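This protein record is not my work; I was only asked to verify it. The record follows directly below this note.
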Amino acid sequence: MAWIGLSDGPYGTWISPEGRRIRVNFGEHTVVVHGLREDGLLLISNPLVGTREMWTQAQFEARWRLLGRRALSPR
C-alpha cells in the first residue's frame, strides 16, 4: 500500500495535542501496488474508483513523491 497525492495540494496544517505541527495534502489517497510487469508498468489497485490500473514508474513516482514516499510492505 502506498500513499499518493492526487494533486499537489491544497495543503492544510494543524497542531496535534502533543504540540506537533501536522501538514496535510487534501489530495491524499492510498493505492495498492500488486505487481510489476516485465515492461516496467506497475499494477495498481485504486479503491477510489474500484479499478485495476497500469501506471508507468514515472507516474507512480510523481504521485508518491507528493506525500513523502510513504508505503507499507508485507515484509
Summary: The first strand starts at residue 2 and ends at 5. The CA atoms of residues 45 and 52 lie 4 Å apart.
